Amino acid sequence: MSAKSHHAIDNEVHFKTYKRYPVTLVKGEGSRVWDTENKSYIDALAGIAVNNVGHCHPAVVEAIQLQAAQLIHTSNFFTTPQQVKLAEKLVGLSNHDRVFFCNSGTEAIEGALKLAKRYANKMGKKGDIISFNGAFHGRTLGALAMGQPKYQQGFEPMLPGFTQIPFNDISAAEAVINDETVAVFIEPIQGEGGIHVANKEFINKLSALCYEYKVLLIFDEIQCGIGRTGKFFAYEHYGIVPDVVCMAKGLGGGFPIGAFIATEEAANVIEYGKHGTTFGGNPLACSAGLATIDAIFDEHMLRMAHENGQWLRERIRMEMPGEPGISEVRGLGLMTGVQLSFEGAGVALRMLEKGVIANVTATNVVRLVPALNISRDELDTVVDVMVESIAEERRVQAEKAVAEQS
Prior knowledge:
The relative contact order is 0.15. The radius of gyration is 22 Å and the shape is globular. The mean pLDDT is 97. β2 and β3 (40-43) form a beta hairpin. It contains 14 helices and 17 strands. With 406 residues, it is an alpha/beta fold. The longest helix has 30 residues, at 376-405.
């Protein structure tokens, strides 16, 4: 079956909810994928920050294969060694005491929202949950209520009890957080919003404010966690401990799994029967998670993410004097945003044609979130292709603008 026929059939039978790239992928290894025509691509998107250890990491593949032959699913009426080991591992790596497993990032957010609501009820709080402009927490209704208006459009009315304030603005936080506030949800590095990094002073003051008013501070590390920033958890950069941390994406090495971890005080509000899941924490997903975490530490991927992320941003900045289409480069670890001076959707398509996968978010930010173990040579190619594609798209848009004015 050709790539064209795959797309034609997909267009007939799947919900029309994705703007697909014009290729069909069939194989992946490390930071490379191949399509049905056997064309190779460097994947600088990693399944949107999912394949942190690369495509089909041998240890993750082996763990999944072995577990699939033994036990795939049991329900949470039972413990399994794999779930217990992964829970113990996450508690050991964090400053938290308890874990709840689910299947995706938005499920982790919804679980944390329930925890926050339960906490508020026990504390007698009647106020709002605070989130930040530019946030993306998922596509379910609770997550949508904390997100950007463009994702809310058509799904109104939004759930009540939510307030949004400017990101990195402690004065705005001080103006709305009080004794009645339920919780604060924040991405320490906004991903879908354009790779905006929260500054340390802001996070420190926000944490102190939440502590003062007994407000739960909940970090959404779905995109920026699991080693992406050069530390296993992004909150480690800030010298504070959130009450709850949500994670997913990179946790399973490509296999679907989500989780949220909490301090004992926060976790204690979820008693028997107050939350649950059928598939969450199944032995297959947990085996993938264990193998992923082991690979990250055994192969020193935190150091690689830190060093290669710094190198990547400096490498791009070296191109800025000769390419006016790039206005800013920002990020942390291997989570990099390249701000363009023009609308950038065409840049990602040009990069794809040249054999590099990336995407453009927030209209004009090229998002680079490759595997943590991507090589410098591959990153060098990514930068060359990206800069060339930016220059081409900038010229085309400039010529189009001139033609429209004449």
